[in-house]
Amino acid sequence: MRTFYLSLKYLAVVLWSAFVIFPFLWMLSTSFKTANAVTAGAKWLPWVQFEPSLAGWQSLFGGVGGINIVKPYLNSGIVTLSGSAIALVLGTLAAYGLSRFTFKAGPLGNGDITFFFISQRIMPPIVLAIPFFLMLRFLGLLDTLPGLILIYVAMLMPIAVWVMVDFFNSVPRGLDEMAWMDGCAPVTTFVRVILPNAVPGLVVAAMFCVIFGWNDFFFAFTMTFTEVQLLPVSIVALNSSVTPWWSLSAAAIVSVAPLAVLAFVVERFLSRGGLAGAVR
Amino acid sequence: MKTKTTLRGAMLTTSAILISAGAALAEDYTRFGIKEDVPGACSFASIDAKDYSGRTLNIITHAIPVIGEPTALHAQQFQELTGATVNVVHVPFGDLFQRIMIPFQTGQQAYDVLFFASLWLGDFNAYLAEVPQAYQEVSGMQSVTPTYKGVASWNGKMLNYTMDGDRHYLKFRSDVFDNPEMQALFKEKTGRDLTVPATWEEYNEVAAVFNNMDWDGDGAPNFGTAEVTKRDDLMFSAFISRVAPYAKHPDVKGGFFFDLETMEPLVNTPGWVRGLELFVAAQASMPPGGTSFGLGDEIFSFGGGQTLMSYSWDDAFIQAMQADSPIRNKVAAAPLPGAREVWNRTTGQWDTFETPNTAPYVTWGWSSAVAAGSQNQDMAFDYLCFFSNEANTLADLQIGRFGVNPYREAHFDPAFYQTELGWDANVATTYTDTLKAIDGGQNQVFDLRVPGVGEFMSSLAAGVARAQSGEASAQEALDGVAAEWKAIVDRIGVDRVREAYANVVALEDN
Amino acid sequence: MYRQKYIFLLPGLLVLVAIILFPLLFTIRVSFSSWDVYNPGLNWIGGENYARLWEDARYWEALIRLTFLTVATVTLQYTLGFALALLVWRDIAARRFFRVLFLVPMMTTPVVMSVIWRTIFHESLGPLNPILEAIGIDAQPWLSDAGFALAAVMIVEVWQWTPFMFLLLLAGLLSLPNEPFLAARIDGAGPIRTFLSVTLPMMGAISVGAILIRLIEASKLMETVYVLTSGGPGTATETTSYYIYIRGMRDFQIGYSASLSLTYLIVMSVALTLIAKALIRLMVKDRT
To answer: Any stretches that span the bilayer, and where are they (chain A) (predicted)?
Structure first.
């Protein structure tokens, strides 16, 4: 009976893995195709079923009629990391405040303030395009990295607050109170006592910030002209009338690579059990 | 990268505007991939003589490669020749409008040069600089056909800089149409000879007969027709191609989309309804998934040899004629099918035509312009003039993926496609004959180039999609569109739309 | 010392308010104007946009469709995510490998992945139908039939965002104390009873948080719809965000799309508050 359960378990894991891997294998195969290989129907194996070509990959690295994603890659890295870092610092502070103290503004309490943060993510971004555009124009930050970072801070902070409030709620209050009794100011307590215990939560929050920042298309697209290009924007520059299955496949693989590394980091924290309560 | 050409002599005789005697002595610009420089105000030599160092030109264009790749290529050349810094940004078609419009409306000078769909001229005209007289007189512009000069003009001013010509036409597999077995099969099934469809009824009939059978013998089933059917993906354009001959009566002037006098929408009149019914009926002869094909899918379906017939812009045809294409030289072009019955809205009845009525749809077309707010208009127009100089255009025409299609008299010579691109005579002739017929054709239909064209077309597409999916009958769906169009006209202002639409009607009724 | 509490909250709150205040007020103001492709500007047309919206059947239908899609996909994601988390929680070989693998779909760029998915669902050139045929199932009209198109959109959403649930729930499981499980074993509880009476109650709070965030994010479903189906066939897959996109960016009816968005914001805020209350009552026993 036990073996039966166990084999069912393995079957389920393998089936889901197949579902997860399947699009990646298809992308990998497609990235080596040409138009003729695509129109010949679904083929998987290069050399055996179709003549492979490097055109899809070359088009990402300055090949003939392509783009060069190296600079957009760096831009995306800068914007994502700075935006995430700022959002994380501000969000973590706010989350700690919301978790430990009582705020009152008329009828509104902590729960409402937390909801205010999270509610920033409800609005469809489309409608914010013009006001954000006007605001950045006023600040002279259109088509610049700082301008995008500013928007990303607003976009990512709600996520950081949400993850960290839950996290701090699960860290025993006794820790703070002991430190206070020892005469530590709240800020010192936060930095010396709570933060070190919060690293796993920070990892999860940072991961979500980076994922959402790295993959944003709309703001990166609307708030720039020719000077600053982020990765998703420069990738869709290849999506012409003829849908280039090959270069988009290559691009998808290239853009997920750095984040996949992140998955390993997060998993390490998970396995150590270090995430205890990271998201409670 | 560029096709090396060997038949220089043949080239020269084919192009009246190529006068190369003087150029032979000048500097050699063939390193730029052109065959030879053509003297003129915007030739390689003339542009080389200018110095724009220290200045920056910002360009927005379509995604790579269609139009986007030649934009970047000529930007690179322009940079080398003049010393200017040229920045190019590439945007997919679906997002291009907003990316241009947001800076325009908020007063932000973002781009000097813009490449966009010419049907947006009704929305953009207020923000564009007129093409200076000097540029209208360069040889490259003088030789543009009247149709495409008309498309570039707004209220008598030339606001678009013509660098491409686009239109819808019919593409079909000549190997099947010429095959006696297939002809016999068709005769057996329908009782008539297999001919290139002259009406949309015939088109649907041919598509149905050859649907879901393996007529190319490769083991996989083939299908009747590939059309752009995906809502919000240029489907409106395919639909109008099908409607035009039923609704555009050659003797009825004064508007195709609207009655210019009353500004009543005509989209729910019987001619339109017939076109939609036939569009819906054709779904039975489309390949799997063919009822949600975007332009890219249509290109792969016909260009990859899956379907017998297709109609839209050049791309699918060019895809089929690529050097490594399995169906190279097995295709041919023809004007769009017509209609034997045409709705006459003045008399309120169907008129019968012995020779099918045709209404060539000169749709969309890539175009370019310079922003009125640009500080670099001199350099911007030089760039566009250089982009479209005779030497560059002849080189661009040879690279299918560039999407630069014939728009000058000289481009309609079949010999060019035979010698430079290696097309079979039949392919080249049907191609140029088709384009010529559209360009000089009577009873042309143009895009609805009025403010809010995006609203009108997305409303139309939504209505057509409802009929396609069976959510509504053709009449119901188009009645809904007409009601929405009325509301849009009211919102934007009836006089404003009429004034703009008068420009379009003037092109049609000339 | 409590006076220092503002040092924590205010920097983040003020920065967020500073960034978001103008766009929000502007959007509210725009929603009372007829800003469109021809008239960029803040004229005053009163509540005209809202009156029009009230009668806009397409908008309300899209909202109902979105509700169905969101609830269905988030439920699926939660169930699958929980199941997967339980699967690789303990005693399975190579569980660390599987954990990493299960996370990766979340990290792909949606705007690019949706194009990839369209190639996968492509009914004659894509790989999905041949695979189905190989295992004895007929080819399906993935993008051209209303039901299948909805399913296709849901499959993409489930693929991309189940990892989100999976991560949060796995983290929750790994942080559970051991004692309750030992107690359950001593009582002789089987795996199902242990799950229902021990695991599930302890996972309540985290579940509510994860479900709410996913509801918010899933409701913005736009890009996938745009690329896969453009809202078709007919209007079968048109969601609210996609409809707002069409009105706002395609039609460039900025004023009208602002009123659509604000209405959506209000509906969502109310709905989420109610859902949150209901979920907390249902799933969180020890809530103070």
So the answer is: 7-28, 78-101, 122-142, 148-168, 245-266
CATH number assigned to the domain comprising residue B467? 3.40.190.10
Kindly state whether A48 is in contact with chain C, defined as any CB-CB distance less than 8 angstroms. no
Range of the domain at B70: 8-162+364-439
Instruction: Based on the fold, state whether residues B227 and B289 are members of the same structural domain.
Output: yes
Interface membership of B295 toward A (CB under 8 Å) = yes
- Residues with Cβ < 8 Å from B236, sequence gap 6 or more? B457, B458, B460, B461, B464
Measuring CA to CA, which residue among B70, B167, B116 is closest to residue B366?
Answer: B116
Residues of chain A below pLDDT 50: 274-280
From CA B303, how far away is CA C125, in angstroms rounded? 13
A125 touches chain C (CB under 8 A): yes
Right CATH for C56-283 from 1.10.260.40, 4.10.320.10, 3.90.740.10, 1.10.3720.10 = 1.10.3720.10
| One domain for residues B274 and B328 | yes
First-residue to last-residue Cα distance in chain B: 43
Q: Domain boundary at B439, B471, B488, which?
A: B439
In this structure, are residues B187 and B145 in contact, taking their beta carbons and an 8 Å threshold?
no
Q: Hey, what amino acid is at C204?
A: G
Chains that touch B (3 or more CB pairs under 8 A): A, C
* Rounded-to-integer distance, Cα B396 and Cα B491, Å: 42
**Which two three-digit tokens encode residue B379?**
């350099």
**How far apart are alpha carbons B91 and A232 in whole angstroms?**
11
Token pair 């920097």 in the structure block, residue = C11
The verdict on ipTM greater than 0.95 is no
* Number of independent structural domains in chain B: 2
- C5/A278 CB distance under 8 A: no
- Does A275 touch chain C if contact means CB atoms closer than 8 Å? yes
- Which parts of chain B have pLDDT scores under 50? 1-24
Q: Within 10 A of A148 (CB to CB), how many other CB atoms are there?
A: 28
Residue B488 to residues B253, B484, C59, C251: CA-CA distances in angstroms? 23, 6, 17, 10
Q: A118 contacts in C (CB within 8 Å)?
A: 212-213, 216
Q: Which domain holds residue A222?
A: 77-231
Considering only CB atoms, A41 lies closest to which of B98, B106, B220, namely: B220
Q: Which of C20, C22, C24, C274 to mutate to test the interface with A (most CBs of A within 10 A)?
A: C20
* Partners of residue C236 in chain B, C-beta under 8 Å: 469
Clarify whether residues B332 and B252 are in a common domain: yes
Q: Specify if B3 maps to a domain.
A: no
Contact A120 C265 (CB under 8 A): no
Residue A167 located in a structural domain: yes
B2 occurs within a structural domain: no
Instruction: Enumerate the residues of chain B whose CB falls inside 8 A of the CB of residue A222.
Output: 98-99, 102
Predicted pLDDT at B192: 93
Give backbone dihedrals phi and psi of B181, rounded to 5 degrees, phi first: -60, -45
Of B439, B463, B494, which residue constitutes the final position of a domain?
B439
At residue C288 the predicted structure's pLDDT band, cuts being 50, 70 and 90, is very low
- Between residues 6 and 45 of chain C, which touch chain A (CB distance below 8 Å)? 6-9, 11-13, 15-16, 19-20, 22-24, 26-27, 30
Report pLDDT digits (tens) over A177-208: 888 888 888 888 888 888 887 877 888 899 99
* One domain, residues B403 and B307: no
Taking the CA of residue A230 and the nearest CA in chain C, the distance in Å comes to: 12
Q: Do B207 and B237 fall into the same domain?
A: yes
- Two structure tokens written together for B452: 């809010």
**How far apart are the C-alpha atoms of C198 and C86, rounded to whole Å?**
13
Domain shared by B139 and B207, yes or no: no
Q: Does C194 touch chain B (CB under 8 A)?
A: no
